[in-house]
Amino acid sequence: MADILKRLFTVPKCKHCFKPADRENLCDSCRDMLDNCRIKNPALPINKKIDMVNESYASYKYEKRARQVITRAKFQNPAPFLASLLDDISIDINRILSQNNIDMVVSVPCHKSKLYRQEFDLPSEMAKRIAKHCNVPYSVCVVKVRRTDKQHSLPKEKRKANLVNAFEVQGNVSGRNILVIDDVITTGYTVSAVATELKLAGRNRVYVWAYTLNT
Ligand SMILES: [Zn+2]
Fold first, then answer.
1. Pick from 89, 111, 105: which is nearest to 43 by CA?
2. Which residues contact 45 (CB under 8 A, 6 or more apart)?
3. 153 CA from centroid of ligand 1 (Å)
4. At 76, phi and psi to the nearest 5?
5. Which of 187, 189, 201, 209 has the most beta carbons within 10 angstroms of its beta carbon?
6. pLDDT in tens for each of the 215 residues of the chain?
7. CA 19–ligand 1 middle distance (angstroms)
8. For ligand 1, a single-atom ion, which residues have Cβ within 5 Å?
9. Chain centroid to CA 31
10. How far is CA 162 from CA 113, 153, 159, 165, in A?
11. Residue 33 C-alpha to ligand 1 middle, in angstroms?
């Protein structure tokens, strides 16, 4: 009953253009354009070697509509994106979880100072929803312990050094198969820095899934 009332009174918004949309939070034109960015076999590992990461995956190419969807979710309004996240990617995620026996989900953490600014912590909200939907524990064991410059603001040769000692694993994490969630993979340095800490913390296998892959 509550569900029916909720549906009557909340008109879904398109996660890209925020116009009225269908139940999957997409209007027809944005759906076509988003489909064009879809990676063909999202449950197959992407062809990119990332240090300390066992396998990495992505569902969309970071271009056109997919890129706009992520940018708007981060800087304008995350609600339509998050409301429909699982419609897009639950098949991908379920396959990735089962083929790698994933037993813990984490997100690439942001420094707490970021939360005071305008930017929204998209990876953690994505990871919480994915973990709940797939019935796998979500952990906040990875913490960002110092501020870093924005990766995309730096020349490529400085991006790796920017992340040295930026992350820390807190608590006892060992012998797990962990999926790290992020919104975009670009160089892979950030998830690599997170994976390094997770591997130092114990005999963990570390996998990564990002909504988009920026090649
Ligand atoms: Zn739209």
1. 89
2. 55, 56, 57
3. 29
4. -115, -70
5. 209
6. 666 666 556 778 888 888 888 877 888 888 889 999 999 999 999 999 999 999 999 999 999 999 999 999 988 889 889 988 998 899 999 999 999 999 999 999 988 776 656 668 899 999 999 999 999 999 999 999 988 888 888 988 899 899 989 999 999 999 999 999 999 999 999 999 999 999 999 999 999 999 999 98
7. 6
8. 14, 16-17, 27, 30
9. 20
10. 17, 11, 5, 9
11. 9
The amino acid at 177: N
* 19: Cα separation from own chain's centroid: 24
First to last CA, the chain: 46
- Cα–Cα distance, 200 to 215 (Å, whole number): 28
Spacing, Cα 73 to ligand 1 middle (Å): 13
Reference 190, options 144, 155, 132; nearest CA is 144
Closest CA to 126 of 190, 78, 91, 186: 78
Topology adopted by domain 39-213 = Rossmann fold (3.40.50)
Any residues with CB less than 8 A from the CB of 24 and at least 6 apart, and which?
A: 12, 31, 84, 87, 88
Q: Which two tokens stand for residue 18?
A: 């925020």
Strands in 147-204 per DSSP E: 167-169, 177-185
